[in-house]
Amino acid sequence: MAKSRSTFVCQNCGAITNRWQGRCDSCHEWNSIVEETPGTPSAARLGRGRPFNLEGLSGEGPAAPRLRTGIDEFDRVTGGGFVLGSVTLLGGEPGIGKSTLLIQACAELARRGSRVIYISGEEAVTQVRLRAARLGLADAPVELASATQVEDILATCSTGRRAALIVIDSIQTMHVESVDSSPGTVTQVRASAQALLRHGKSTGSSIILVGHVTKDGQVAGPRVVEHMVDAVLSFEGDGAHHFRMLRASKNRFGATGEIGVFEMTGLGLAEVANPSALFLAGRDAGAPGAAVLAGMEGQRPMLIEIQALVAPSSLGTPRRAVVGFDSNRLAMILAVLEAHGGLKLGAHDVYLNVAGGMRADEPAADLAAAAALVSSLTGAPLPPTQVYFGEIGLSGAVRPVIHAGARLKEAGKLGFARAVLSQTQQLNDDDKGAGVTARAIGDVSALVAEIAQAAPRR
Q1: What does the angle CA 210 – CA 76 – CA 109 come to, to the nearest 5 degrees?
Q2: Are 250 and 233 within 8 A, CB to CB?
Q3: In this structure, how many other beta carbons lie within 10 angstroms of the beta carbon of residue 400?
Q4: 350 has which bridge partners?
Q5: I need a labelling partner for 329 at 20 to 30 A (CA). Which of 56, 101, 266, 378 fits?
């Protein structure tokens, strides 16, 4: 019998080496390689398979039944509720409110008669009860347990009535007895997730796996787990702000990029029905360097304020500081403004911030960022009832973007009267009836000229 040979696996990226080393060659993480002893490989040959029927692309199947939590923002991100038998991976930084959100969702489902099981591998049952009492959810018939062995958890969930929802908090604390490695290692996380996934698919129970995140915000553990599950959600937020965002980066049963917005209160997480009004609350509409972006988050239109500060620099290399915006895209916008807008920004410090802790990642934010930069440099405040959206090309042209109608309707709903967009943007009659006047521009030189005309005399 061949002797099993130890392997060394990086706990950050899953790379395998034949010896220990201090730094992983794949992800360059320090002290992340752990020795693991794999099971004896099977030498059995494949048996004779049985043929199965193949089907064509045409035809209709039954719609996937959904399990709605009763929290509208949560259900929006999942595509209308959890599909029965689906497995969802939820990641987020420590203390951001993942457990609070899940215990609220579990309580809503349990109160409507569904069987809900909450398994905590990090906290005792008493700690979960204290949180539920603080949130006013102690009366909800949620079944709690503190366990880490997957075999015991599956045996418990298989007894009695089928569970509609099973929450595992967190997958990094789970371990499978047949795998000879410590909890949290790549092998254990993969084996535990696979066992829970099989249980969900075979019984029809929806399962939520809570995952830890790394320093760069990615879900810790092997990337294969994200491919195994049906949906990957991330719960984001900033300790300096009182709201949180639930974002879907993968969803086999709904749209990706959808977000749900919550506000952290003394009684837990409250839904924010109108995020645009929240992000624009308290803005100084008369200050130069502030532009409102009519953006999109998934299928939801959202108005966001982009702030810029351009100031003369005393340094040999001016500073470029960015919060909530892509630094490479800012460098491109600055280059286009210099080359095609006639601005001289090489001797100025540039600071760009997306207010409220939001992120503006879509190309449609280019025009709003450029308007904020020009406004700050010239000292001309932008019209308070005007929004911007459009992509800026390297030639200086303003290019059209998608979902123009939804952006205009959201702006009109919040009292904005004018929108600056690309002159090649296609608008239909419904878009024109949103109550917002479209101001079409062709390139950044026209944008610079329009803002410079309103600059105060010096």
Answers
A1: 60
A2: no
A3: 17
A4: 310, 320
A5: 378
- Residue 304, marked binder: no
Q: Is 95 annotated as a binding residue?
A: yes
Would you say 356 is a known binding-site residue?
Answer: no
Q: Are 323 and 352 in contact (CB under 8 A)?
A: yes
Handedness of CA 324, 325, 327, 331 (dihedral sign): negative
Q: What are the tens digits of pLDDT across the range 331-346? A: 999 999 999 999 989 8
- Tell me the pLDDT tens digit for each residue of 21-46: 888 888 888 888 888 765 544 444 66
The one-character DSSP state at 120 is E
Decide the pairing of beta strands 290-297 and 386-388. parallel
Q: How many CA atoms lie within 13 A of 403 on its CB side?
A: 18
123 marked as binding residue: no
Please give the model's pTM, rounded to 2 decimal places: 0.79
Distance CA(390)–CA(295), nearest Å, equals: 10
pLDDT confidence tier of residue 286, bands split at 50, 70 and 90: confident
Q: Is 413 labelled as part of a ligand binding site? A: no
Q: Which phi and psi (to 5°) does residue 109 adopt?
A: -70, -45
Determine whether the annotation assigns residue 108 to a binding site. no
Check whether 93 is labelled as a binding-site residue: yes
Among 136, 72, 75, which Cα is nearest to 107's?
Answer: 136
Express each pLDDT in 51-104 by its tens digit: 988 888 887 766 678 999 989 999 999 999 999 999 999 998 888 889 999 999
Chain Cα centroid distance, residue 138: 30
Cα 178 to the center of its chain, rounded Å = 34
Q: The tokens 């600071």 sit on which residue?
A: 351
Q: Is 92 annotated as a binding residue?
A: yes
C-alpha closest to that of 71 among 261, 247, 230: 261
> What torsion, rounded to 10 degrees, do the Cα atoms 117, 121, 126, 130 define?
-80
Q: Give the strand pairing for 165-169 and 116-120.
A: parallel
CA 272 → CA 173, 213, 242, 244, 303, distances in Å? 32, 25, 11, 10, 14
How do the residues of the chain divide into helix, strand and coil, expressed in percent and rounded to 5? 30, 30, 45
- 26 against 160, higher pLDDT: 160
- The residue whose two tokens read 């595509």 is 79
